[in-house]
Every structure is written in structure tokens, then in C-alpha cells.
Write a structure and sequence with these properties.
The complex is a heterodimer of chains A (about 375) and B (about 250).
Chain A (H helix, E strand, L loop, with lengths): L5 E3 L1 H23 L2 H26 L7 H20 L15 H5 L15 H24 L5 H21 L1 H4 L10 E2 L2 E2 L3 H27 L1 H11 L1 H5 L5 H27 L9 H14 L4 H21 L4 H15 L3 H10 L5 H5 L2 E3 L6
Antiparallel strand pairs in A: 1-4, 2-3
Helix pairs in contact in A: 1-8, 2-8, 2-11, 2-12, 2-13, 3-5, 3-11, 5-11, 8-9, 8-11, 12-13, 12-15, 13-15
Chain B lengths: L8 E10 L2 E11 L4 E5 L6 H8 L7 E6 L2 E2 L5 H7 L1 E4 L11 H8 L6 H5 L5 H13 L15 H13 L5 E5 L7 H14 L4 E5 L3 H7 L2 E6 L2 E6 L1 H6 L1 H8 L2
Parallel strand pairs in B: 3-8, 3-9, 6-7, 7-8
Antiparallel strand pairs in B: 1-2, 1-4, 4-5, 9-10
Helix pairs in contact in B: 3-6
Chain lengths: ~375, ~250
């Protein structure tokens, strides 16, 4: 890192960034966007949960997971399972050969609700499952890998393989999962119609507050001694181990936490978009989420959220105009960020732009750094 | 040879081989309480491997390592650390992106699990302990500096400080003065003679002048075996040692 002559005061920068972002998503977007566009932003914000988790897991600790779609998807599927059962009342499904079960089960000659679907009749159990199922799955993967000291690129490849397996499993077992189409035609949450404009507004704000809460948790961890240990694990894993810490426990913890955050995003996705499908579980969405995080800045919670919004906004505008070019643009963007701005937009702002602003000193954002070493 | 000893550390008949190559071969090494032992030897003699074996980074193929009369072969690295063995690596291994204070704070032997770390409280006691160690390693006025901006010698001291704050009974230092200036070497020798008072230290070093200034006993390793052991004069006078190591 080049010495710029100024060091950023993290607390005031945090507050300003957090306030700007909150104002943007809570005030500006609802005022200037119609409900269709706002719902779209709400969908982008659900990806931001994954990006915030990646900041802790990848940015702070150095564990690159290329399979966060698994946990986003598991959270989303748990939510969708509850909504689907509610939408599949006997009255709604009386034309089926077995009324009262989800339509895709009926099409696949399943005649009774499978046992693994039973807990999703209850909203509290379904909400617990939204967090517990992905976290438990992350724990199993994390314990198996980190206790054996599998890390780095091997871990990334394994998460990617698990994401691929997960997609194949969901598509293959369509009687239980809805297959390639996913779980569609979700209607109500305890009788409240989630397809109306007013419901979409409420869900958008719920998503915003949950995201701000998630960001707060991530920031709290980054500022604690735990956060410093995570950075230490990234920089000098052996030194941490030979200082008496059980490194694998810290890695498992941060991987589970990142997965739980992704799962909350997945559940909010299902609620706002109204369906869940394997196209949000596999390799491509998992890698896209890493790109959102990289573009925004993998060490910055606020940067990751801003990056997610920016990339998705560009994606939407670009693919509306030139649909076939988007993938190339995305690949180019990723290469450009990695080569030119390894710390992403957030790094660009804190390292390049702020130190050059004379007013920075007045605002108390930057203050002179201590003298460099002789 | 008795298997129960009064030694702080006892290696008996320790061997390790990598793909058939015996890096350490039937090694016996005993370290007393309060002793400063220096291990010397030509490149590839197995010096660093011995430290790796003691701290659990490499597993022994055969033999026994006892610390305070308890077998530690097979223990996990962090368990060995918690029993009181600290190890400094050959190149300064510190947390570059954290400040000197944070480097020392993380090394304090408290709050070592996830929950303890999350709700860690930087008490006055913690600050006092960090300041105490920082003054020993000549870094009192550098506490708020990011560690990456320290000079090479200061980084070496910081890593020694990160071990001292754990208050280990046995400290193992792999080439602590490599890359240091003459005045830094003298300060390091003074530091080592200062910390030896409460603990045992094993040092691997090439710099013979530095070895003369600190060593109580010297062990010469050659091809994974002990070639000679004794005080500095007798080792230097040993013809076998002259032939394989000191002579050139």
C-alpha cells in the first residue's frame, strides 16, 4: 500500500458512508423510482446481503467462497417452501389429482407431502430453517475443509463444485424441489398478499432495514478484536496458530456467518420477487456475487453494498440495450477491477480521491498519518 | 537413558523423514530450565526442522518429545503453545496491516475463542501489559504505527515481543538477528540476556559473534544428528565441527 500522507479516520468515514447509503435506499429510491423499478432495486439489495457476508469471509479473512449461491438459494427455498404450502391449500388446488400439495409435486405423481416439507407448514419453523439450514450446511462444509487445513484456491474450487452439485440435485429431484422451474406462483404470507404494490413497498423497506442491520453486525465484527484476528488469519495464518488460537474455529465461524447473511438475502429475494429457482444457486450467480463484492471493495461493507447496486444497475441498463454483450462487459469489468483497483470502489475513494480533497481535513475525514519508517 | 527427566524439554531418539530423506535422525536434545541453548550447523543440517518438530508444525516419524515431563508429540500446534512453548519464525512473521499495539494485544493469551474475541475488552490491565512488553522490545513510541512501516529489525523485535507477552517457559527463536545492523544485534543480545532470567530459550543462529555473546551451551547439528555439544570454546576447538562448519 502506498503511503498517501494521510490516514483515513475510519469512524467518521463509516458514519458518512452509512448515512449516505441509508438516505439513498430509504429516501431517494422510493421517491424517484416507480414500484417496478423499486422492486428491482429491492432484488439487487438481496444480493447485497451476500456481498456483505463475502466482505467478512473473503475480504477480512481471505476465504474465497465461489458457492455463496448455495446459501442464498437454501434461504430462498426455505422461504419459498412455506409460501408455496400456503398457496397450495386444498381449495386452491382442487383440480389436482391430489389436492393440498404443491402443483409441481402433483405433476410428478407424488401423492402425499414429503416429510422434509412438513416443517414448512409453520411460519416460525420456516423462519428458523431459513437461517439454520444454510448455516448448518456451511458448518458441515467448513468443518470438513478447515479442520483439514484445506484453504485458498482448493476451498474455492470445492465450494464451486458443491454449488454445481446443488443445482443438479435441485433440477434432478423435481418432485421435491420444483426442478428447473423452481418454486413459483407464491401468493400470500399468512393471508397477506405479497404481490400487491403496497406489499412490495413494505417488503422493500423490510429488506432495507434488515440489510442495514446486517451491515451493522458486519462492521461491529470488523471493529472488534475478532475482526483483527480475522485479518491476522488472512495475513499470517501460522502466526495466529502459534499464538495459541484454533484458526479453524474462526474460519468456520466466519464462513457460517457469511452463509447466514446470504440466506437472509435469499429469503428476502423470494418474498420480493415471488419465486425461487436453481438459477440463483449455481456457479454463475455465485461468481456474480463475488464480482459485486470485488467491484465495491472486498474489505468495505459499505463498498460491497454500493458495488452490488452499481453493477446490477449497469447490468439492467446494459442488458436492456445490448443483451448479448452483457457477459463480456461483466468479465471485462472484473478484470479491470482486479488489475487496476484491487480494493474496489471503496479503495479508490479512500486511497485516491479523499486524500486529494482539501476539504477532507475540515470534515475530519482524514488526518495526517504518522511519519513513515526511516 | 531414563525416560523421566528433570529437563524442561527432552527430545529422545527423534527422527523425521521426508520421502525417505532423513532430515532429523535419532536426535537427542535436552534443555534445562533457565538455559539459553544455541543450535548451529551448516545449511540443511535440520535446525529449523527441529524447531518445527517441537512446536508441532511437523510430525515426528519416530521418537519422543517431552515438555515438563509430558509427551507433546501428537498435540495440536495451539495446544503446544498453550502449554508454554513460543516460536519465532525465520522471517519476521507479524500482522502487517495491524498496528504494533494490536499485534501485541492479539498475542495476549486471553480471549482466544470466537466469543471471547468478539466481546474483548481493552482494559487498563491489557494496556499496561502491552506497554510493558513494548518497552522491553524498544518499541514504546511506535505503538500506533502500522506494523508494515517498521524497519526489518523492529519487525524482528515485535515478533519476539508477541512471544514474550504470552509468557512462555520455552522460547524458540529462528535466526533472530538475520538482517539486523550491528547496533540492532547488540540490542537484541541485551534483550535475550534480559528475558532469559525467567525462561529457557533455544536460538538458531549463523552469526558466530552473536552466538558467542549469548550462548550458554551450543549444539552443533550435521545431517540431522548432533555432531558436538558443549560450551562455545570446546565446540569451536572440536576438529569435526571445524571440518563441517566453522572451517570455511
Amino acid at each position: 500500500m502506498a503511503m498517501t500522507g494521510y490516514r483515513i479516520n475510519p469512524r467518521s468515514l463509516d458514519l458518512i458512508g452509512f448515512a449516505l447509503l441509508a438516505a439513498l435506499i430509504l429516501i431517494v429510491f422510493p421517491l424517484v423510482l416507480d414500484i417496478f423499478r423499486l422492486n428491482l432495486v429491492g432484488k439487487y439489495l438481496t444480493y447485497a446481503f451476500v456481498a456483505v457476508g463475502l466482505v467478512l469471509c473473503w475480504g477480512s479473512t481471505g476465504i474465497l467462497s465461489l458457492g455463496q449461491g448455495i446459501f442464498f438459494g437454501l434461504g430462498g427455498y426455505c422461504m419459498a417452501a412455506f409460501l408455496k404450502l400456503e398457496a397450495s391449500s386444498v381449495a386452491n388446488t382442487k383440480i389436482q389429482s391430489t389436492p393440498g400439495i404443491p402443483d409441481f409435486m402433483d405433476w410428478n405423481q407424488i401423492t402425499a407431502l414429503p416429510y422434509i416439507w412438513m416443517p414448512f407448514k409453520s411460519l416460525p419453523l420456516a423462519l428458523i430453517a431459513v437461517i439454520a439450514v444454510p448455516t448448518l450446511f456451511a458448518f458441515i462444509i467448513g468443518a470438513a475443509m478447515f479442520k483439514r487445513r484445506v484453504g485458498g484456491v482448493y476451498f474455492a474450487i470445492i465450494t464451486q463444485a458443491v454449488a454445481a452439485v446443488m443445482t443438479i440435485l435441485i433440477i434432478g429431484r423435481q418432485g421435491y424441489t420444483g426442478g428447473i422451474n423452481g418454486i413459483t406462483d407464491l401468493r400470500t404470507l399468512l393471508g397477506w398478499d405479497i404481490r400487491t404494490d403496497s406489499a412490495k413497498y413494505i417488503l422493500y423497506f423490510a429488506c432495507c432495514f434488515l440489510l442495514l442491520g446486517t451491515m451493522f453486525v458486519a462492521r461491529f465484527i470488523q471493529m472488534s478484536k475478532l475482526g483483527r484476528i480475522l485479518v491476522a488469519v488472512r495475513d499470517q495464518e501460522d502466526r495466529v496458530r502459534f499464538s495459541g488460537y484454533d484458526v479453524s474455529n474462526f474460519k468456520i465461524f466466519v464462513f457460517c456467518l457469511a452463509s447466514a447473511m446470504a440466506a437472509v438475502g435469499g429469503a428476502m429475494f423470494t418474498l420480493q420477487v415471488g419465486f425461487m429457482s436453481p438459477s440463483f444457486v449455481g456457479i454463475v450467480p455465485s461468481i456474480e456475487m463475488v464480482i459485486f463484492c470485488a467491484v465495491g471493495g472486498r474489505e468495505s461493507v459499505i463498498g460491497a453494498v454500493a458495488g452490488t447496486l452499481l453493477v446490477n444497475w449497469v447490468k439492467t441498463s446494459f442488458s436492456e440495450a445490448f443483451p448479448e454483450l452483457w457477459l463480456f462487459a461483466m468479465g471485462g469489468l472484473f478484470i479491470a477491477v482486479v488489475l487496476a483497483f484491487p480494493r474496489g470502489l471503496a479503495g479508490l475513494i479512500t486511497d485516491q480521491i479523499l486524500p486529494r480533497l482539501p476539504s477532507g481535513r475540515i470534515w475530519g475525514i482524514v488526518h495526517p498519518s504518522p511519519a513513515p519508517a526511516e | 537413558m531414563s525416560s523421566s527427566t528433570d529437563f524442561l524439554l527432552a527430545l529422545e531418539n527423534v527422527s523425521v523423514s521426508f520421502d525417505g530423506f532423513k532430515a532429523v535422525d535419532g536426535l537427542n536434545l535436552y534443555v534445562d530450565k533457565g538455559e539459553l541453548r544455541v543450535i548451529i550447523g551448516p545449511n540443511g543440517a535440520g535446525k529449523t526442522t527441529v524447531l518445527d518438530l517441537i512446536c508441532g508444525r511437523t510430525r515426528v516419524s519416530d521418537g519422543s518429545i517431552k515438555f515438563k515431563d509430558q509427551e507433546i508429540t501428537g498435540c495440536k500446534e495451539q495446544e503446544i503453545v498453550r502449554r508454554g512453548i513460543g516460536r519465532k519464525f525465520q522471517t519476521p512473521t507479524i500482522y502487517e496491516h495491524l498496528t504494533v499495539f494490536e499485534n501485541l494485544e492479539l498475542s495476549l493469551p486471553r480471549g482466544r475463542n470466537v466469543v471471547g474475541a468478539l466481546f474483548w475488552n481493552r482494559t487498563e490491565e491489557v494496556k499496561e501489559r502491552v506497554h510493558e512488553i513494548a518497552s522491553m522490545i524498544y518499541l514504546s513510541d511506535q505503538l500506533d504505527r502500522p506494523a508494515e512501516t517498521l524497519s526489518h529489525g523492529q519487525k524482528q523485535w515485535l515478533e519476539i515481543g508477541m512471544l514474550l507477552i504470552q509468557d512462555p517457559e520455552l522460547l524458540m527463536l529462528d535466526e533472530p538477528v538475520a538482517g539486523m545492523s550491528v547496533s540492532e544485534r547488540q540490542k537484541t543480545a541485551a534483550l535475550l540476556n534480559d528475558i532469559i532470567k525467567n525462561r529457557s530459550v533455544i536460538v538458531i543462529e549463523h552469526d558466530m559473534k552473536f552466538v558467542e555473546s549469548i550462548a550458554h551451551r551450543v549444539t552443533v547439528l550435521h545431517q540431522g544428528k548432533v555432531l558436538a555439544e558443549g560450551d562455545m570454546q570446546s565446540v569451536q576447538a572440536n576438529p569435526k565441527v571445524k571440518e563441517v562448519y566453522l572451517g570455511h
